[in-house]
Specification:
The protein has about 350 residues and is α/β, with parallel strands linked by helices. The chain folds into two domains: about 220 residues, DHBP synthase; about 100 residues, Rossmann fold (3-Layer(aba) Sandwich). The chain is built from ten helices and 16 strands. The strands form two sheets. An eleven-stranded mixed β-sheet has the order 1-8-2-3-7-4-6-5-9-10-11, with helices on both faces. A five-stranded parallel β-sheet has the order 14-13-15-12-16, sandwiched between helices. Helix 7 links the parallel strand 10 and strand 11. The longest helix is centred in the last third of the chain and has 16 residues. It is globular, with a radius of gyration of 20 Å. Bound molecules: adenosine monophosphate and magnesium ion.
Length: about 350
């Protein structure tokens, strides 16, 4: 398949590129579009065949459901049984980087939900995503636009590497601002439960909802025989070609360990900006941002992991173990899985 590459910076309703991409979606095609979290690979969310095409293009198991993207929070009522807690979240965080799980209505095909009776709904804030969903006039089913097993794409060039020739259109809308996938909270069980941490933090959810549980798999591996609350939890997430080890300890001790490890030209170091001058000559460094700037660390993480993977000489990678609070919990969740839970105390 020939993939059309479009750049969209102007998102007025009369934008011809948006209208064209929306038409492709309505005719069963696949369009990669930018959102404020990561790029998404989208198809008509009411068309089971479009959902199947998404799973195929990504190489994703079809029991790992897609997120249904809507242009206004109130559209959720068409696709799910909403409740007071949903209204509270919608008022505070939508449009934005939040996905809510609710019991689904029959109009949503089970291929979209991976066979589940619940559906994931998100109303993105990115102007291109918003304009595309509105112009399509249907909800857009979309997971992240990476090949299954690779880090989520935060730049159109990442998508081109993974999906050129496998989708109809790739819309370049610049770098994804947040850089990590949306926060996922389930309102379909007895208590609100955080299934995936993201830019809408756990504390912010608690302020809005009162008590919120954290699914154990957010910080731990799935236990043997544990049924995942979110199917995505059971799949091995991105693991770099070279094994990644997270370093846990006082700042000085971690920096000292990194300096020593960096003497080996086959070792890649994901370090804070302020550590760079302390590292030895010739060290293979990937700067993740300043220590206290978790937003920049989130924004850069997946691009850094992709970059590290392009260097075939690297046989080991080291990174800081992020704090488990605020946006740090989302970084922790992604890194601990990329590291297959390998943490070294220093
Ligand atoms: P992605 O957009 O690639 O991060 O994929 C969507 C994520 O949403 C996956 O990790 C799914 O497991 C999760 N998800 C989608 N629908 C549901 C659902 N009904 N219940 C729980 N998790 C879901
Ligand atoms: Mg994904």
């Amino acid at each position: 398949m020939k993939t059309e590459l479009l750049t969209v910076l102007d998102t007025t309703d009369k934008n011809a590129e948006i209208a064209h991409a929306a038409d492709v979606i309505c005719h069963g095609g696949l369009v990669v579009f930018p959102t404020e979290t990561v790029y998404g690979i989208g198809g008509n969310g009411t068309d089971p065949l479009a959902a199947e095409a998404i799973y195929r293009a990504k190489g994703r198991p079809s029991d790992n459901p897609l997120i249904l993207h809507i242009s206004e929070p109130k559209e959720a009522e068409k696709y799910a049984y909403t409740n007071d807690l949903y209204d509270r979240l919608a008022a505070q965080f939508m449009p934005g980087p939040l996905t809510v799980i609710l019991p689904k209505k029959d109009i949503v095909p089970k291929t979209v939900t991976g066979g589940l009776d619940t559906v994931a709904l998100r109303c993105p804030a990115h102007p291109v995503a918003h304009a595309l969903i509105k112009a399509a006039g249907v909800p857009i089913a979309a997971p992240s636009a990476n090949l299954s097993g690779k880090p989520s794409p935060t730049l159109a060039s990442h998508v081109v590497n993974d999906l050129l020739g496998k989708v109809d259109i790739i819309i370049d809308g610049g770098a994804a601002e947040v850089g990590l996938e949306s926060t996922i909270v389930s309102l379909a069980g007895e208590k609100p439960t955080l299934l995936r941490p993201g830019a809408i933090t756990y504390d912010a959810l608690c302020l809005a909802l009162g008590e919120v549980e954290i699914a154990p798999a957010v910080v731990e591996g799935l236990r043997e025989n544990e049924k995942p609350l979110s199917p995505g939890m059971k799949y091995r997430h991105y693991a770099p070609g070279a094994p990644l080890t997270l370093l846990d300890g006082e700042d000085e001790a971690v920096t000292a360990f990194m300096c020593e490890a960096a003497k080996n030209a086959n070792t890649g170091i994901l370090c804070y900006d302020e550590e760079i001058p302390k590292m030895p000559q010739g060290a293979v460094l990937f700067s993740v941002g300043a220590k206290d700037d978790l937003s920049t660390q989130a924004h850069r993480l997946f691009a850094v992991l992709r970059e590290a993977d392009t260097n075939p000489n690297i046989t080991a990678l080291f990174a800081h173990l992020p704090p488990q609070k605020g946006l740090g919990l989302a970084l922790y969740n992604r890194l601990i899985r990329a590291a297959a839970h390998t943490v070294k105390k220093v």
